[in-house]
């Protein structure tokens, strides 16, 4: 049944039957109407006659949330003024709700309500906006692509609320670096700025550094991977190997991109932390990233540099697609003596002279076991050290920079503790 109390334009809303009443000092009774509490009532609004709202904006948000939660479909507003709002169901059912100004104030309250829906319930509702879902932590199902976009916007807003805005994260880097130095003695944190703005950060945790120095082979894998946050960038990493063939993460850095400058900066810091004195006793393996080879020539000209054979084979396969040549390539790669290497290369020359010439242009000490140095006591051909690290940090790479660094930090500490328990 419709309840209408707005026929008289001079109507005094205080004449409505109130839920509560109170007496003043003279004994005169004052009526009090229920007020809409946005913090507690917005998740599941209940509309009653006389309900008081702060303004027309709060009333409209409450009605839209009411329709979303109860799946009543869309609501439109034929009359939309600051002190007078009329709301009706868009499907032409008799439901209606009107608010007007309370007597003696600019507050509005429900003066007419016909709370009867004859339309069927639906999940589709164009009134749904992202700010409603995030501001009031609501879970509402949507079915249309148009409205799913609002869902994605709501997810983005929610992540900003939880993790903070992207730009604010960079102001917290110095606090994070100081915290790491205090809690993990020996840690090295370097932040580089470009004209007062963040450019790079280098992280070498004290426990990782000391663990590598005390028990790992003098072989380090280098690699870079893309970050998937809003500001993008790339993450460079250095990973070592234990004598029992387990990986050991040493250092990582967030840079603007992979180039000669960023690799030189990363390698110089890594060399100081690891304590590389005699470069000839150290071996590095990489995927020949952009700018890495010239960086090696400047920072580590006397060290040994291996190339990941998987990437070498990928380039080889683009030119020579025979399976016979593939098997021949891997035979050359796995040879352990120079005479055997020469013999297998001659066999490849008989199969395809172009493939032979292409491979001879690559220095053998970069990719064949027969020319590797024996000091590291490791004949590794693939850079799986870094590939496994990149795979483990797949989720952190999608986060904002401080969140990402914290997740990687936590991951490495957990890994060290688990190995300590196992050993």
Structural commentary:
The protein has 423 residues and is of the alpha+beta class. Among the domains are: 3-127, no CATH class; 168-305, no CATH class. Helices cover 40% and strands 20% of the residues. It contains 15 helices and 15 strands. The protein has helices spanning 38-41, 56-70, 130-135, 145-163, 166-171, 173-183, 206-215, 260-274, 292-299, 309-319, 323-333, 338-351, 353-360, 384-392, 401-422, and strands spanning 3-4, 20-23, 29-32, 52-53, 75-80, 85-89, 96-101, 108-114, 188-194, 197-204, 219-226, 234-241, 247-255, 283-286, 304-307. Strands 9-10-13-12-11-14-15 form a seven-stranded mixed sheet, sandwiched between helices. A hairpin with a 5-residue loop joins strand 12 and strand 13 (247-255). Helix 8 (260-274) crosses helix 9, helix 11 packs antiparallel against helix 12 (338-351) and helix 12 crosses helix 13. The longest helix is centred in the last third of the chain and has 22 residues, at 401-422. The N and C termini lie far apart (76 Å). The relative contact order is 0.08.
